[in-house]
Amino acid sequence: MGAYCNDDLSLSPAYSFASARDLRLSKHVHDNVHGNIFLDPLALKFIDTEQFQRLRDLKQLGMTNMVYPGAVHSRFEHSLGVYWLAGEAVQKLKDYQGLELGIDHFDIQTVKIAGLLHDVGHGPFSHLFEREFLPLVLGGSNWHHEEMSVKIVDHIVDEHNIDIDPEMVKKVKEMILASSEHSLPKGKKEKLFLYDIVANGRNGIDVDKFDYIARDCRACGLGCNFQFERLMETMRVLGDEICYRAKEYLTIHKMFATRADLYRTVYTHPKVKAVELMLVDALVKANDYLHISSYIHDPCEYWKLDDSIIKTIETAPDPELKESRDLMLRIRRRNLYQFCNEYAVPKDKLEHFKAVTTQDIVCSQKNTGVTLKEEDVAVTNVRIDLTRGRHNPLESINFFKDYESDEKFTIPDDRVSHLLPTSYQDMIVRVYAKKPELVGAISDAFENFQLKTYGIKAQVHSTPEKKKQRIS
């Protein structure tokens, strides 16, 4: 990844998408990624509500700041960034193809508001809340923050009597759900290309990724050589779908590769996952007393739930929260679950991979004089891909030759470069010891599990003896 340059992230002047009159009525904000952005009057009506302001208290990257101290940016600033880029993207399409596509002020406003509100229903601690906590306390919950976002949109409109066209609200909610399993069938939407901008369910290229990739790289001190501006300048609608110039194939590949690199080095960093595993345990133990999971059923209550739940657990004197408090104290004192080892699932085993469990490890323990229990072990199965699992996401993208051409086509990656990957997903199995004195026994059991499952030790090297003997 190349050097990061903030100056390069400033897009064209605000006058490219708004009239002078619009700007006089807008609020001027300086964003540390995109530079000067302007919030229009309708957007401000949503922003200046307690439901939206809650996003200030949700860290974009959850507990990642325990490893990357600068990663303390919030869903609030990310949402403003997506709002801005959504407006830039649809305005560029209007500038280049407005008459042909029939893009009007209604469309521009709708896409911008969808970008602003796409994460308004997000849970605490990044995706940990819905992907790891809720399934444990609700028995395999299939709850998604996008569904809550659309409920909160309705709640904000009703609660604050926002004067907005009901048709616009309907389309905003559809755009928020566009990449989820609750998306409407394509044939039921007009101007389908507009649904590709905020949350693209067709191929994964959207302004949500444009913003969080740039913002997260900056916050964590990483370089980012993916330039989303090139894609926004060259995109074109063909057959009701946003397509990209063929020469931008590698730019798009860099986007997916940069995202995968963020997952590997930041979002699923072994120490970050150790903290998250402990936080999930603390939340699960506190749930019966604090009823955290009950908040997801009512948007009137849900907006009150944010990252401050940690402070509630830490400061409450209630004996029912003692186990959770103790876990949070361990996190504060850096007495984390000990990372024992990891391995990448062999490529030929990925298709039929079954998630490894604590029971698998405990059942593989050796006769070492230590008897392991499931509650002594933590296992995490980390999937890192290019957004389409084992498939190449670029196969879903349509390209065009040049601006004189009306033909769209896909590009096989072997026509571009033989250096591009032929596999698009990693599955990494990691095991942790909840007590430092058990690192050795758990590491041995983990190695034995690999031998039983694959006939080889798939890990890179054995757990260092010094780590096995460490007792805190």
Please tag this protein with its features.
alpha+beta; globular; single chain; 472 residues; 10% strand; 3-stranded antiparallel sheet; 9 strands
Walk me through this protein's architecture.
The protein is α+β, with helices and mostly antiparallel strands and 472 residues long. Helices cover 42% and strands 10% of the residues. The chain has 18 helices and nine strands. Strands 3-4-7-8 form a four-stranded mixed β-sheet. A hairpin with a 2-residue loop joins strand 3 and strand 4. Helix 4 runs antiparallel to helix 5 and helix 7 runs antiparallel to helix 8. The longest helix has 27 residues. The chain is globular, with a radius of gyration of 24 Å. The N terminus is likely disordered. InterPro entries: dGTPase-like (IPR050135), HD/PDEase_dom (IPR003607), HD_domain (IPR006674). It holds the Pfam family HD.
How would you characterize the largest beta sheet? 4 strands, mixed
* Helix-and-strand structural type: alpha+beta
Mean pLDDT: 92
What sort of overall outline do the alpha carbons produce when their principal axes are compared? globular
Range of strand content: 5-15%
> Tally the helices: what do you get?
18
Radius of gyration: 24 Å
As laid out across the biggest beta sheet, the strand order is 3-4-7-8
Question: Short description, anyone?
Answer:
It contains 18 helices and nine strands.
